[in-house]
């Protein structure tokens, strides 16, 4: 493994399920103090990781809520004095998402969770990271940021925003020794796949050179790498974890 996260303060959003849960588990196994952020309860993940002897802190929070972000970060700074890592992973997709089929409500929900939530998270932790001249942020984008996926119009737009924001912030804070990168997962077998029909998912398989879909743990390993000391000269970058889809 790339790093030892002993005693690092690591915030993971969307930690209640899927890629976020797998990432939180890996950081915790590597010794991090992991703050499990999710809009729904994270008791199950907390119980799983605490039983393994890991140190985790549950935080029920909506990533769209800037005041909640600021309070969480202020509380953590009082308690620990620093934030080492932020993984902005929480995100949603919605069915019927073509330009014609999508609604203003779908636009508002996907843009506010997938894009605004990432911006708010970075805005909350960056002052402390910049002051400490140390920090790592990994945002979760998607292949949808790189190619036009059918029935994912607003989702594609929201993930394009994540990619652009990551690039910009990576440049802005590079000299402050804060590295900001993103991952772009391909089809990964998580709860978000409920928004896609079996037929739609099957259509992705020939577009995935590796010939199968990802497990959450495979994406988590890349997120952990981008937050580790081993990625010290990587910033403003996006790493595809898609079985070769966007290389096709
Ligand atoms: N699974 C895939 O195929 C795939 C592919 C590319 C990108 N992604 C991205 O990966 C990330 C994780 O998705 P996943 O596949 O693990 O999905 P998931 O549905 O399994 O997990 C997402 C988690 O985010 C939480 N969440 C949703 N809205 C939230 C909010 N407003 N505030 C806080 N938490 C919230 C959910 O409660 C859930 O626990 C998302 O950003 C998604 O867009 C997933």
Bound molecules: nicotinamide-adenine-dinucleotide
| Individual helix count | 7
Total domains: 1
Rg (C-alpha, Å): 17 Å
- Shape, per Cα inertia axes: globular
Q: What fraction, in percent, of the residue positions are helical?
A: 40-55%
Can you count the beta strands? Answer: 7
Fold blueprint:
Elements (H helix, E strand, L loop, with lengths): L8 E5 L4 H12 L3 E6 L4 H9 L3 E6 L5 H15 L4 E4 L15 H29 L2 E6 L12 H20 L5 E8 L12 H7 L11 H11 L11 E4 L7
Parallel strand pairs: 1-2, 1-4, 2-3, 4-5, 5-6, 6-7
Question: What's a quick, concise take on this entry?
Answer:
The protein has helices at 18-29, 43-51, 66-80, 104-132, 153-172, 198-204, 216-226, and strands spanning 9-13, 33-38, 55-60, 85-88, 135-140, 178-185, 238-241.
Descriptive key words:
single chain, 248 residues, Rossmann fold, 7-stranded parallel β-sheet, 7 helices, 7 strands, binds nicotinamide-adenine-dinucleotide
């Amino acid at each position: 493994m790339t790093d030892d996260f002993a005693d690092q303060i690591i915030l993971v959003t969307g930690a209640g399920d899927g890629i976020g849960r797998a990432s939180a588990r890996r950081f915790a196994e590597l010794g991090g103090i992991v703050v499990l952020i999710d809009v729904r309860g994270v008791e199950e993940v907390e119980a799983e990781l605490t039983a393994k002897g890991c140190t985790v802190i549950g935080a029920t929070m909506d990533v769209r809520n800037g005041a909640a972000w600021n309070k969480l970060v202020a509380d953590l700074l009082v308690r620990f004095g620093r934030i080492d890592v932020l993984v902005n992973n929480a995100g949603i997709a919605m069915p019927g998402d073509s330009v014609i089929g999508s609604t203003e409500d779908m636009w508002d929900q996907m843009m506010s969770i997938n894009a605004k939530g990432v911006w708010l998270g970075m805005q909350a932790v960056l002052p402390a990271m910049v002051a400490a001249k140390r920090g790592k942020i990994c945002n979760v984008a998607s292949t949808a940021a790189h190619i036009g996926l059918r029935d994912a119009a607003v989702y594609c737009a929201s993930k394009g925003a994540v990619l652009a924001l990551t690039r910009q912030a990576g440049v802005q804070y590079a000299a402050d020794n804060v590295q900001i990168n993103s991952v772009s997962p391909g089809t990964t077998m998580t709860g978000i796949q409920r928004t896609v029909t079996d037929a739609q998912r099957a259509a992705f398989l020939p577009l995935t050179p590796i010939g199968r879909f990802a497990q959450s743990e495979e994406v988590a390993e890349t997120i952990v790498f981008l937050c580790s000391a081993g990625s010290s000269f990587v910033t403003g970058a996006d790493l595809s974890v898609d079985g070769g889809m966007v290389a096709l």
